TrEMBL record, chains A, B:
The keyword Disulfide bond does not apply. It comes from Galbibacter orientalis DSM 19592. InterPro entries: DinB (IPR007837), DinB/YfiT-like (IPR034660). This is Damage-inducible protein DinB. One of its GO terms (molecular function) is metal ion binding.
Amino acid sequence: MENSNNQTKENVTTILTPDELLKHWQGHRTLTRRVIELFPEKEFFTYKIGGMRTFAEMTMELIGIAAPGMKEIVIGNTEKLREDFDHGGKKSAILELWDKSTEEINSYWEQLETKDFSREMKLFGEYDGTVMSFILYFIDNEVHHRGQGYVYLRTLNIEPPFFWER
Amino acid sequence: MENSNNQTKENVTTILTPDELLKHWQGHRTLTRRVIELFPEKEFFTYKIGGMRTFAEMTMELIGIAAPGMKEIVIGNTEKLREDFDHGGKKSAILELWDKSTEEINSYWEQLETKDFSREMKLFGEYDGTVMSFILYFIDNEVHHRGQGYVYLRTLNIEPPFFWER
């Protein structure tokens, strides 16, 4: 049931498999990584408009949510949400954290079963919802902030990647 | 199978039902509507930064995609993508189009069956994908541009709604 390739049109019982959802999310993460890469090192950590945060700060929020969120969903440990990580002002340090998260997400995902997605829980000791609602939130929140990153890049005269390139 | 309330943990075969996906999308649409409402009438049609489009133009792109896309998915007619609509410089005209789209989406959605989501098609005579890939794109694209709308509002000194309010 997890694999859409095994389904025929006659016995389809799902509109989205866990494998497809992971691929969708990791596709978004690939695009976000390209946005991080496009920022000049200095502006990544310093540039902001409208009283908003730097794109480095938004990226650290995403890093603090994604793999730790998946860890809590799968392992059940509750840790406080963290939005700050050591980076020494180096974009490469953030990209390393990003890539480590990518592997961790894949690894935790393997331990998820279809029935887990409807499980209700409290995430980061604070937020109530189903596992699926959290995963959709992780993705939506990333798309939301990446859209803001696009505006930052545009106002820095840098052309962002095409939105549909994943 | 469409209704998660009828599922017990033992026979769960899906992570997301069509009903849940529609509710997710319409939740996002409610939030986007609030962002449109928060723009001052003049700035909605004129304000832009970084060489980007006005939020009115982005909104018309969303209007041109959502209900017409659902219409094509369900009815099968192919029309060219439209991103411009008569509005007479009135935000109320755009909000009327928005609300009409909301009803149309709900109405077309009722005609979708689970098996339709994996159907491959060419949308707007241009884009290849499955029905599900298009619907996810409609949602992601809206979240992306709304995130940009948040930056516009912030730089206009207007506080956007909380992201999780749907």
